[in-house]
Model the fold of this input.
Amino acid sequence: MNTEQIYYNPVLETLPRERLKQLQFKKFQQLFRWGYERSRFHRALYDQAGIRPEDIRTWDDIRRVPKVEKSMMRDIQRKDPFPYGDALCVPLEEVTEFRQTSGTTGQPVYQPDTWQDWEWWAECWSYILWAQGYRPRDRVFLPFGYNVFVAFWAGHYAAEKIGCEVVPGGVLDTQARILKIQELQATAMMATPTYVLGMADTARKMGLAPENMTVEKITCAGEPGASILSTKKRMEDAWAAKVYDHAGATEIGAWSYECTAQPGGLHVNEAFFLVEIEDMDTGEIIEEPGRRGKMIISALDRQAQPCIRFDSKDVIEWAEDPCPCGRTFRLIKGGVQGRADDITKVKGVLLSPGAIEEVVRGTEGLGDEFQVVVDKVGDIDRITLKVEVVNEYKQRKQEIERHLKDQLRLKTNLGYVLEFHEPGTLPRYEVKARRFQDLRKEH
Ligand SMILES: [Zn+2]
Done:
């Protein structure tokens, strides 16, 4: 492959919109037929709704196809054929990969893939890495605990596929990983935003300067941080590297990527995925930019356990302008803005955890960690924001407090109880951070 070329797939990534829509439509028809003919789970769902493969003739027909929720997938697990249940579309012996969801929102869902699916994973990730400037000369370090959770497994194989040199940092602890990056002069790495910041912190405690190391680019996934500008800036400053976002999921695939133009959002890989945004109140499909809704997604080429109009609960919105990079794949603004379940009403106002993160990480003198707790005092909602003040800023606590209160009021329209903690005392996370707690729900 010509390393000068901008796009991993110059044909698909610049396909005129109309042709892209045709391609998606054709693929969706095939996918629907595949699920209907091969999975008892899907056939029962569609028979109940009265939709058969020959009924998918227009885009409106696609919108009549019943959505699949994660809880429905949970219900069929551990049944025949064990352990996946009857959404499996291939003979069990064709399954080569077992993965499961991270389980942050309940019992994990199992995900089988065939070898062809696995190659598809690596192909989708190749679009991501190429768009973020990965080339064969790169030495890529993966500070990632290789396990049943899919996370960066596919990033690993894609990096190999495009010709990079891959260093798996599996069971090493954080210090050993940092030393390995230094020793091998790695040029790229992939991790969650929380871990990228945590590694920089550990490096500094070891007396090293992460900004003087050789890492040039970092691919983030697992949390929305790399699309939150103040968090992105903290990571870029800490490592003197470019930081790019990617959103994907075990039960969906690697469906989006930020490119080197850093347009403030993610491209949807529309050659492989169909993303629909649904209004959370009316259920109507949103085509225009600037209106938030939840993502309904189909993985158009995945075979073993298909993903057909999956209700992801990710909150997203279409961006206004096309990306300067020239890709015709549509952009979603600001990445994934949160989970539909997390975006709750506090004192009657919609609260988005991402907006709080933006303010905290954009405030000078605060550490990287924070926690938000929502509870009730009598009948009144209360939000407590816990932050850490770094030692050099302790004298300026009042100034920080004033700034935080103003910014939070401005960005979220809510008032907060602020708690200041000693540096390093709030919980730290390696994989999926849980910084938002709604105690009103838990009681
Ligand atoms: Zn772009």
Remarks:
- The chain has a mean pLDDT of 94.
- The CA atoms of residues 77 and 259 lie 37 Å apart.
- The radius of gyration is 22 Å.
- The first strand starts at residue 95 and ends at 100.
